Amino acid sequence: MQGTTKPKEELLEDLDDIWQKVSKLELSRSINTKLQKALEGIIEIIGRMIEFRDRYTYIHQKEVSELAVKIATKMNLSADTIECIRIAALLHDIGKIAVPIEILSKPGRINDFEKHIIEAHPQIGHDIIEGIEFPWPIAEIILQHHERLDGSGYPKGISGDEIRLEARILAIADVFNAMISHRPYREAFNITHALEYITQNKGTFFDPSIVDRCVELYTSEEEEFLSEYSIKAQQSLVETLQSMAEIVEMRDPYIIGHQRRVTDLCCAIAKKLKLPESSIDTLRIAAAVHDIGMINVPVEVLAKPSGLAKNEYDLIRNHPKTGYEILKSIQFQGPIADIVLQHHERLDGSGYPFSLSANNLLPESKILAIADVVEAMYSQRSYRPPLGLDKAFEEISKNKGILYDPDSVEACINIFNQNVFQFT
After folding, report:
1. Domains observed in the chain
2. Which of 91, 92, 281, 345 gets the most CB atoms within 10 Å of its CB?
């Protein structure tokens, strides 16, 4: 039996109805996309506010979020729950915005009064976030991230299943990352120690099943996971040091951007010389913080518009040693502290601070010395106008093989002349 054919008018009405439904669906998707972008924007703004005040907390929240997501994924939680955990972790320490910076950065043990102030941060974070209409219970998770399974946590002292699953995951990721990170009052613990701590407190402080998933991340994919964490820890450390170095630059408007431009030139020279990637990475880090020792030089000396007195010049000449002292105890993957220490040494031994000669200088420090001189001459200083690239090239060319490494000089001039590199 053949079906009856609908009249043309009814078909048109059906098509119009379908079109209206599709249009509403597309509008809904568009609104959801815009809401998601707005949500990410809010999170980014809040993150930047925290970073401006306390860079450690900003980096810590990002790393805790990454670990919490890994644990939640290992637990086979839904995509929606994982997204909830990701956002809650990115914001979990926002309440620390109300904690005085002198307490957050205190190098010694905190007293009972200071401890009381710090322990208020989950409640403060909850109160800040509560007014934002997230599609998840973000504020409640933030409130609970320092609660413990046995009721010994804060601020409410709740226990067991009273604590949301998301908060229990966040608690472990938070403690683990805090332990393996450098803090003002102690060095970082190693990963083995952190794993032992959460395992020893499984069932008392921490949810056993979540601890097991966290440990599995190391036992099943140990090398990959440890390598990834090591890289991220190094990146975070470098970012922190770069921020410190940029703060030094901000004291003298004429040197703002100097270390960034020197870094770019160093890497371009190193690539021209076909150095291995590991050497280029080492050079990139060293160049980015090579003037961090200037932090000990008074701003009135840094920005002095006339010539320096001998005692002022001695202060400037001491900055490689100060930089070395800041960096020497940090376990980089390359000799960063030594490169910084040597960046004002010269091939003939006429440099400072130790008058080292060619055979005692690292290849990276020879490149950094040239990039530093070229950028300094190219740019304006408080006591003189910019000298330009021609003068800079004249300086390194006439002193090639005397003060500066010949191969690095040739590479430097060539990348400019061949338009491979320009300062930005």
Report:
1. 25-220 (1.10.3210.10), 236-417 (1.10.3210.10)
2. 92
